[in-house]
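Example record used in the benchmark description.
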Amino acid sequence: MLEFITDTRIYEQVIQARVPRAKSFVWIGTADLKDLHVTKGRRMVPFLEILSDLVEQGVEIRLLHAKEPGPIFQRDFDRYPALLQGLERIVCPRVHFKSVVVDGEFAYSGSANLTGAGMGAKSSARRNFESGFITTDQQFIAAISAQFDSVWTGTHCKKCRRKQYCSEH
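Model output (structure tokens):
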């Protein structure tokens, strides 16, 4: 399956439908990372709460992003102690791809950053115009995973010349 999606469908299909149901791992790559709120039951919560719930269930979370998030994100991050031990993060200023891989069985790739206006529960009047695709096709998932993993493992670091801005590998 390969499906083109836009705007609120990204939120519905990726953030609401797939990430919370992860069983093994979630890999998220994004250039920009901001406070993002999502629906959980009958209330709105920081997306970090969803990730914290997953960590507490033993799901591996990897977050690859281009720059440090702002103070609101950091404040919310500090509210979830499970994330300190169970969420792995790497900062790489060259990351500009936006992707989500869930359990090696589902992937998103597109334009939306992990922000409220990109992937969040914002109204249509406050959202960015985003597009991408979701897939369960193993070839596409393997390609998206390989790109993420090559950055995660530091394959490009020796030639990068931006190491002073990165997390250590």
